[in-house]
Amino acid sequence: MAGKYQIRIHGTFESAHYLYDYHGPGKNESLHGHSYKVEIFIRSVTLENGIGVDFVKVQKKLDVLTGELDHKCINAVAPFKEINPTAENLARHFFDKLGNSIAEGSFIYEVRVWEGPNNHASYFP
Questions:
Q1: What percent of the chain stands above pLDDT 70?
Q2: Is 45 in contact with 55 (CB distance < 8 Å)?
Q3: Residues 56, 66: Cα–Cα separation, whole Å
Q4: What is the largest CA-CA distance in the chain?
Q5: Whole-model pTM?
Q6: What is residue 104's DSSP assignment?
Q7: What pLDDT, in 10s, does the model give residues 27-70?
Q8: CA nearest 101: which of 4, 5, 9?
Q9: For the sheet containing 32-44, what is the strand order?
Q10: Any idea of the CA torsion for 31, 33, 116, 120, to the nearest 10 degrees?
Q11: Residues 12, 51, 124, 33, Cα dihedral to 10°
Q12: Alpha carbon of residue 124 to chain centroid
């Protein structure tokens, strides 16, 4: 059964953050929190035994990454001590950490990070 498949894995975490220089140089945004959701969209072009990507393996890796941010101030976690913890940078961060760990014949084509139920940013490698 050759073909193309889309797989979606998602995770959630609760965190606080503030943006650096949001109100001008040296004027950071106030600390505030969000209920985040991370969606990983994977394209699979091969199937072995009817499995494009092992959901369980990818979910475990994503759970480790979201766990590193859950109930923390994101600004205190590398690399966000140095870069703004925006939804855009978070999406890139999740891709950088997961991108090479997807099954052969499959690849991440979008990472979407939601800050609450209404707003999200996507990273397309």
A1: 94
A2: no
A3: 15
A4: 57
A5: 0.92
A6: T
A7: 999 999 999 999 999 998 766 677 778 888 999 999 999 999 99
A8: 9
A9: 5-17, 32-44, 106-115, 119-123
A10: 40
A11: 0
A12: 11
